[in-house]
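call fold(seq) -> tokens
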Amino acid sequence: MSKHKALTGAIAALASVATLGALAAPALAADTTYSPNGKTVAELAKHGGAQRIASIGNEKAKNVILFLGDGMGDSEITVARDYLKGANGHFEGLDAVGQPGALGDAKAGTGQYTTFSLGNGSKDSAVGKDGNGKLVANANPGKITPVTDSSASGSSWATGTKTYNNAVDIDVYGNPQLNLFELAKAAGKATGNVTTAEIQDATPAVLESHSSERACYGPQGKTDGSSNNAAKNCLANQLKENGGIGSISEQLLDTRADVTIGGGSKYFRQTVQGGEYKGKTVWEQAKDMGFQTVENDPAAMNALQYQEGRPVLALMSDGNMPTKFNPSKATAKDPAKDANPTVCTPNANWLGNQGSSLKDMTKKALDLLGANPNGQQNGYFLQVEGASIDKQDHAGNACGQIGETDDFDQAIAYALKSVDLSNTLVIVTADHAHTSQILNAQPAYALSTVLKTADGNNMVVSYGTAQDDSRDADGGYNGGDMEHTGTQLRIAASGPGAQRVIGLTDQTDNFYTIAGALGLATTTDAQNALSANAEVKIAADNGAYVANADGFNGDAVLSYELKDKNGTTVAASDSSTPLSGVRVKTAQTTPIALDGVAEGAEYTLTVTGRQSGKTVTVPFQAPATDSASKGDAGKDAGKGGVIASGKVNNNAKPAGPFGVLGATGTTVLAAAIAIAMLVAAAMLVKTAKAACDDRNAKSGR
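ret:
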């Protein structure tokens, strides 16, 4: 074969490989969808990709408290202030945080942040489920969605990663993203989660769990345990009985925050369907795991004291907690409303009457975190949510949302009097804006409520975003589908690093503000390094074998494979989706039950962190029945002792060309391969042309 033909053939082969490399990039099509500031969806979907102030550094704080008013846009704050305090009035908490000099804090700051998401539901993600609960794949996930829901917005500040509406702490490709609780626990800090909502609701859930569906409340779905709708509300492969990491409630227990206070107690009455606690209720599982538990008992909540190794799980109501004020009704335009404006009335069922207001729960959380040695030495991160500002706004209930804003304000005011702003950063913000608007007169086409404000004036609050006409027989609104809005939101802060919120930021910047202040791992590389010292110990106890994994603090999910000496797989985790596998118990021991181990046989166990890619390989031999009389290893095995162990090999390279890069990394690598191939092909073309020209010149052609 001539050199000319050989070069031509090589060029053709390289061009073919380059073309295949380009076709192997599944997310490249998404790169053609641009955001208003020029970033593609694929760029925005990366961890930290939506930051607006990535180059701005942090001051350090020992503690951070994030106060989150769900649905509390500027309009909701103003509605409550005007009604409760008058138009020129002042909130003790809401209006103090971020105000320079108000708390003796000259560095306080106030700004705005953007809240858009990257998709409206699972259909816009790479891994989701269809109406029948079956897995569906989308090669080009993500699109810019101007209006976020609470789960996508919460995921943004909890992880620093934009995602789709309905997702909890996963990216648009379905990959779990480490959240502030996981990172704080890895750093030895105490953690607390307080809400007036069901503890499984989106905002508290983003600190507890990773889920493709925000409604995956428990092992039986979103029920009180008397039925099972998990097939409707959960990705099937996320459920423990199918080899997944479990529902939000189950993951809450695995996360093991030091303090958890809220509603949603009825979902803990569900029965666990798979894993170690199968057949028990979630409440029973919590007690078996050493939690101090309180169910619907404010007095018992207030009596709680710190106990070493016994985190608090106190759920005050079956569902969302009752509102402070009785509901009002938004109705059609009617002159009679101007003549007889609404005055809000106290709700006798409000738990604040029994010592369980949001202020009371915040006080208890701060007391418990302050008594915790980790909190004393290393600091704490506490999130406090005023949840039903949003829920009452959805219902067009002006009095309901005003009372919840008041309850929220009093919790902030208490904290400001109780913490040291020289070492504690306090942030007050919301997850999204909402529908209520203050107008000068009743609107002709929207529903409204006319209220008598504290300064004696009438205030018209309009609700005009319901997509369906859900009016009752009296012309009032009886639906719950008033909509979120996509406007930017107020964010205010006082304490170390507060000035980072000034100007226009993004919701994901809040993750970096909080994590940076606490000294947590914020970059992907830094988070992966948290698993660099992971270790796995294999223990045997009367014929049962378990692998105890420690130190995988840079991971949310583990996978494992157990092979015999012939290389045959004996047992393995499910790896069909990013939410399949073993849920990591951060800063704790994560047990992995090993099935199929035979006495005296030889095996190799491989445990891999699904986020970090760190791997531990442990070869071992199962003790024989009579080994207890033949040495220390046998004696230990009979009593649950360690028979083998292994640590991460940080010098090992990931197997295969794509390693553990995930969807985005694979895309980038495939594109890089394609470019390299094309460059090589171009160089060969140039070489071939030069050779041909030289030959032609010599032959006189």
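The chain has three domains: 3-32+659-699, 63-522, 531-647.
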